[in-house]
DNA sequence: TAATTCATCCCCCTTCAGGGGGATTTACAA
DNA sequence: TTGTAAATCCCCCTGAAGGGGGATGAATTA
C-alpha cells in the first residue's frame, strides 16, 4: 500500500471523540496534516479555513446531518473529496451519499486497512465503496454497476452464474472463451467481495 | 420392484384416450382389474359401481375439474386412494391436491417407472410426490419434509449448504464426519432433484 | 422376526470452482 | 499522446463439488 503525497490535508468530522482521535492517529503516520472536528458547525468553519483535500465524514453528526453537510459542501467546494464513514449500512443513507456523487463510503466496522485503501483510491481520483454495503443498493442499479462495480459483461456473467450455469456453458452462450468467463467471475467476486457462488447468489437475491 | 396384490382395482380417469390406454396397458400386466374413464361423469359412475382401490386422476378432466372431483371423492369414499397424474407443475394445483390429503402426485413427463413406484408406495399406505414438483410446495412445509422428503439431519445440512458453508465446515458444526455430510448432500440432491448448489439455493429461496 | 428407514461412515473418480499470476487489443479520456 | 479501463484470453494450482458405488448399527414398523 503506497499512500499518495503526504502534503494532503485531511479533515475528520465525527462526534465520537474516541473514534475521531483513533482515526486521526492512524492517519497521522501517513499524512502530516490531519484536522479533527466534532460537530457540523466547526466542520464548516474548518473547511473554510483549511480547505482540506479530503473529508472523512460521519453521517450522524450533531446539529447538522452529515448528508446535508455533504450536499452543501458539494456545491460550495466541489474539489473536496468526501468519504462517508459511518456505522450504518442503511440503504437510504447510502443512496443519498451516492446521489451526491460522494467519492467513497466506508463502514465503521470494517478494518482500518479498508479505510486506508479507500483514502488511497479516492485521492487518486477513483471511487471507493465498502464491499459490505452492496445490499439493496449497488448491484442492480445500472448507473453504479456501470461505474463502480460490474461492467456490462461482468453483469451478464453474474446473472448466468446465479442461474446456476457453469463457466463452460456461459462461455458458449456468450461466444467467448472459457478463460474469459473465469476472469469475469474472478473480477465479479473481487468487486462484490464474495468468494463463493453461494455468497453471490445469496447477495444478489437479497436485493428484493 | 414388487407390486402389491393384484386383486387391487385401479381406475384411470383421463380424457386423453391415448394416454389413458397406454397407462392401462402398462398396468394390466400387474393388476388384473384396470378400468378406464374419460370424463368426470363416468368417473363418478364408475367409482360407485366398481369401488376401486386406487384412482389415477387427471386434473384437466372435461366437465368436472379434477380437484373438485377429488374433493367430492374424499368425502364420499375416503378409502379410495388417489394419485393425481397431470401435466402441469402448477403450484396452486399441487397445493390443492395436498390440501385434500391426496396420496400421490405424478407428472406426466416422468418415466412410467415413477408411476409404478408411486402406485406401489400409495397402495402400501405411503404417500408419493413426484420429485420434480418441489417448487413452491414441499420443502419448508414441515409435515412434508418430514414424511416425504428430507429427514431431520438432511434438512439441517440443506440449510447450512444454502448458507454457503462447505461440507467440511458443516461436518464440524454437526459433530459428524465429512463423509457423512457428503452422503447427506448426495441424498438431498437426489430427493430434491437438483444437481448443484446453485439449483438448491434457487429452489429453496423460491419458497418465499 | 423380517424388512425398512435413518444416521453414520467409507472409497473412488472426474470435473470444476476458486484464486494466483499474467497478456493483449481497443477505445476513450486527460 | 499517454495512460487507463474494458474486454478478451492464457497458465497454473489446489481443493472441493458432484456422483458412483457401497457398509453398518439402531430403531421402527409390518
From TrEMBL, chains A, B:
Q: Which Gene3D superfamilies match?
A: 3.40.50.2300
Biological process annotations from GO: phosphorelay signal transduction system; regulation of DNA-templated transcription
Q: Superkingdom, according to UniProt?
A: Bacteria
List UniProt keywords, sorted A-Z: DNA-binding, Phosphoprotein
Signal peptide limits: none
PANTHER family according to UniProt: TRANSCRIPTIONAL REGULATORY PROTEIN DESR, TWO-COMPONENT RESPONSE REGULATOR
List 4-aspartylphosphate occurrences by residue.
58
Question: Which Pfam family, any one of them, does this sequence belong to?
Answer: GerE
Respond yes or no to whether keyword Membrane is given for this record. Answer: no
| Organism name | Runella aurantiaca
- Outline the extent of the HTH luxR-type domain: 143-208
Which GO terms label this protein's molecular function in UniProt?
A: DNA binding
Q: Where is the Response regulatory domain?
A: 9-123
| SUPFAM superfamilies recorded | C-terminal effector domain of the bipartite response regulators, CheY-like
Name of this chain's protein: DNA-binding response regulator
Cite the SMART domains for this sequence.
HTH_LUXR, REC
State the InterPro entries in the record: CheY-like_superfamily, NreC/VraR/RcsB-like_REC, Sig_transdc_resp-reg_C-effctor, Sig_transdc_resp-reg_receiver, Tscrpt_reg_LuxR_C, WalR-like
Amino acid at each position: 500500500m503506497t499512500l499518495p503525497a503526504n502534503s494532503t490535508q485531511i479533515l475528520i468530522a465525527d462526534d465520537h471523540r474516541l473514534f475521531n482521535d483513533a482515526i486521526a492517529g492512524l492517519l497521522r503516520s501517513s499524512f502530516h496534516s490531519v484536522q479533527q472536528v466534532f460537530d457540523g458547525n466547526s466542520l464548516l468553519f474548518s473547511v473554510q479555513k483549511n480547505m482540506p483535500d479530503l473529508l472523512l465524514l460521519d453521517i450522524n453528526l450533531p446539529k447538522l446531518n452529515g448528508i446535508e453537510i455533504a450536499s452543501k459542501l458539494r456545491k460550495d467546494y466541489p474539489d473536496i473529496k468526501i468519504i462517508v464513514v459511518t456505522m450504518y449500512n442503511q440503504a437510504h443513507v447510502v443512496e443519498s451519499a451516492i446521489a451526491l456523487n460522494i467519492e467513497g463510503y466506508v463502514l465503521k466496522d470494517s478494518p482500518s486497512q479498508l479505510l486506508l485503501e479507500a483514502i488511497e483510491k479516492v485521492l487518486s481520483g477513483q471511487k471507493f465503496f465498502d464491499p459490505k454495503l452492496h445490499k439493496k443498493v449497488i448491484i442492480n442499479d445500472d448507473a453504479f454497476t456501470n461505474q463502480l462495480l460490474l461492467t456490462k459483461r461482468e453483469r451478464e456473467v453474474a446473472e448466468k452464474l446465479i442461474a446456476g450455469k457453469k463457466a463452460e456453458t456461459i462461455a458458449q452462450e456468450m461466444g467467448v472463451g472459457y478463460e474469459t468467463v473465469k476472469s469475469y467471475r474472478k473480477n465479479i467476486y473481487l468487486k462484490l467481495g464474495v468468494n463463493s457462488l453461494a455468497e453471490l447468489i445469496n447477495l444478489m437475491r437479497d436485493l428484493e
